[in-house]
Predict the 3D structure of the following.
Amino acid sequence: MALTIKEVEHVAQLARLKLTEEEKVKFAQQLSTVLDYADTLNAISTEGVEPLIHILPIRNVFREDQRKPSMEREEILANAPLAEGFQYKVPKIM
Amino acid sequence: MSPDYEIVIGLEVHAELKTQTKIFCSCSTAFGAEPNTQTCPICAGFPGALPVLNRQVVDLAIRAGLALHCEIPAMCKFDRKNYFYPDLPHGYQVSQFDFPVCKQGYLDIDIEGQKKRVGVTRAHMEEDAGKLVHQGDITTTPFSLVDLNRSGVALLEIVSEPDMRSAQEARAYLEKLRSMLLFAGVSDCKMQEGSLRCDANVSVRPFGQQEFGTRCEIKNLNSFRALERAIEYEAKRHMEALEDGTELFQETRTWDEEKQMTRSMRSKEEAHDYRYFPEPDLPPLFISREWVDEVRAALPEMPEQAQQRLMEVYGLPEYDAALLTLTPETLDFFDRCVQEYPDAKTIANWMMGEFSRLLNQTNQEIGDSHLTPDHLVQMLRLVDDGTISGKIAKTVLEDMFNSGQSPQEIIKAKGLVQISDADTLLPLIEDIVGANPKVVEDYKSGKGKAMGFFVGQIMKATKGQANPALVNELLKKVLDSIQ
Amino acid sequence: MELYELTVHELQELLAGGITSSAEIVKSVLARIDAVEDQVKSFITVTREQALDKARQVDAQGSYQGLAGIPMGLKDNICTRGVKTTCASRMLADFIPPYESTVSRRLDQQGSVLVGKLNMDEFAMGSSTENSAFFATRNPWDLTKVPGGSSGGSAAAVAAGQIPFSLGSDTGGSIRQPAAYCGVVGMKPTYGRVSRWGVVAYASSLDQVGVLSKDVRDNAMIMQIIAGHDPLDSNCVDLAVPDYVAGLDGSVRGMRIAYPREYFGVGVNESVRDLVMQALKKYQELGAIVEEASLPHSEYALPAYYLLGPAEASANLACFDGVRFGCRDNTAENVVDMFSGTRDHGFGDEVKRRIMLGTFALSSGYYDAYYLNALKVRRLIANDFTKVFNDYDIIIAPTTPTTAFGLGEQRGDLLTIYMNDVLTVPVNMAGLPGISIPCGFTGGLPVGMQIIGKAFDEATVYKAAYAFEQNTDFHTIKPQLGVR
Ligand SMILES: [Mg+2]
Ligand SMILES: [Zn+2]
């Protein structure tokens, strides 16, 4: 299927991607190409086929409810672009 | 509220499950730790880190489901719910979408003596997000700080049917739900600490209309009172809009506790599309009937059964039994008392009266106070044997409540022993009667108040310690002896 | 022979015989890197000092057990504690993980010496390693050609003698395709055989870590070490790992081999097809039963993959929001702009394309038609394999339709470049093990043959691969790199 610029904008907004006007045009065209290709799947009937949700025949994988030391917060914060008072700092929400 | 409209309410309740560790990692869930001291690559959403499910979370979810009379399907799975927010480390929340762990249960609530059944649509396991700390208000703060200690804490989201028709019903549902979760031992349900959180979906429609009105979701309801107030406010807002013909938008609103009003949470209405899909990092869960039966067998006595027991075994009225089974701690307190002291009704009266008043006054739960069942029983015995009066007992109870001392210690320290000695009381009574000839006259002319005046004076003089029965008896004798 | 030219098992023999030391091996490898790296460009990071330190430590212990003293390279999406792990992305250009992947930890505990982190397509999205945010890697057989991808650095480094073995990751062919293009052995194990803990996810239900090596024996030996249950990855199964090396007896007598007709059809280069057919004849000569079979839904694997892979990626890459790690747009005044500004700057075009594709496939109104339908197609593809494996032990096919293409040649032509993985993607969709081994040359470039096995039956795949290798000498031919 062909994606419109508006649909590309919507998807980019959902995915938190900033696109220039040029990029919107380019991505609309490229994504449409791939979606056209994906549409070849319509050639086969999947009616009654169970979606393959998990490839392995495993189930119920658990850990026990036992505490282990957390990571040192200096370490968990070491890669933060911005932190203050041992917390991640972000610009205003609204 | 206008009689022409019907309010329709559904609640989404998030209860923090009582586990030692988070749902997908081994970090502690303890409340109140220093920021970001209970995090790891898994719950902080680092690339390459993978979730492993905490077995206890599933156990507790099943237990909660059984308490809420839910069906536990043989298969359930986790899904990713995608949205961006700075407190959501993965950029998605691991939750359950189309195959939740619990389905189709119900709760019975009591509305002015009438039983009403509220449907529980589903309950599902999910992870909590972190905490955003704002400098001041979210709308004006220049930046926010992110603490991920709470990120990945196990939650059970319990979704009700839109079965409630008033703020009172919604409150009753939440109270009952809390009580069920507490009894089942699955959550601490502390609204102040956020281990029980409630969102309300509210809409209004003209009576008789089949379709629902425009629905608003209200968040940030941190107390039962906030829930009631917010629903009332929101319903009124909807009714006014319907009356005026102004348009209502389906939106998320927040309860402003200070201003006692709801307000819109988003400046611009944002497209919601959570793009749920199966969580590929977690294999599905198959819950065998044996597992369900095991959990069921281990389920403790639930409030309804306890209420029945209190009525049948101790002959308590339904009202009392309902109040005493609101929390497991309350019931436990009663049960301990009644083992030592046979008069259940007296225990109930004290628990629902003075004790309850003190708890409300100090905003405490029964487990937080210093009063022990043992001390209450001792106090009741002291009333029975005449050591203290019922009135003095109230003072003693308050002292026990505050200090944790035994009643004997308090009575001794404060000299509160009841004066049941006629030789002590008689001269006092004679003095007071003698000093008030006018009131004696009133008494003689049959004015009932006169007797009360003298009793009050005598009690005042003895700081309430005089044995009231004996005072009455002696007073009557003294008055009748005056010609 | 220089030390850097040897296989792992040859190096082990020299170490055990006291003929060389780990320090000497590491120095030889580092010298080789110095000599050819500006031609091949396979390393993002070379951990020179750290490697020499560890080699000396190993030497000081006096005896060489397991992989003690053997150099290794890791694809740069495998997290190494304290060592920069970039995924070849601007997003993680300075990311130093505070944790270690299970696979690298196991190799490290065996005494293997990390020499560097290898180039790749950004976040493992691509088939040429041209999508690296830093530089393109070149094919050691012809520096004007791509090494394949996304584990292009891992394959090129082994082919160029820069490292005796490496780890890569394979989501749709990212180990096997570059192995084929670079003439080395590349194994993608069964989904769930090897832990993914600490490996930056592209598509979680398809990703597997695997080994790139100079020969089959080395590959089996390294796989033996990294495979097996890991409680940190819920999908890494608790199943015993057989002794792969012990199973290498050179025999395929009586083995039942299927070659699916769909893998030899249109789009497959004639000389590639001929070389694989010759290989099948070789197997017959060695006593195997070779028959044609059918995997009828093969052509649908790739379009389904380009919905499922991106859908999972769209969520896996949502953690790159500029809050906790990676780059950040510091100019943004609010958090929404910070998110999109960060992701705009941090991600390259192919990553953005796949995120958008996946976001779309999951979005309201399109989920059923795209994502869910692709899951159903995935079932059909898996069922095809199950049927064939009822009658056969392994499946043999070309790894890729062509040999390595020219740098820049397929840039911008999405479907053409996606087509590189058309013969490898179905194996990921079915979660099966697949190896690519050299089976000849055409136009001076290596051709890869793919051997696909039953789930968790890597042993038979290795056995068959080894038998072919031992009866041919393609694995002994090395690219000639000019040493300047
Ligand atoms: Mg929820
Ligand atoms: Zn954690």
Notes: The mean pLDDT of chain B is 92.
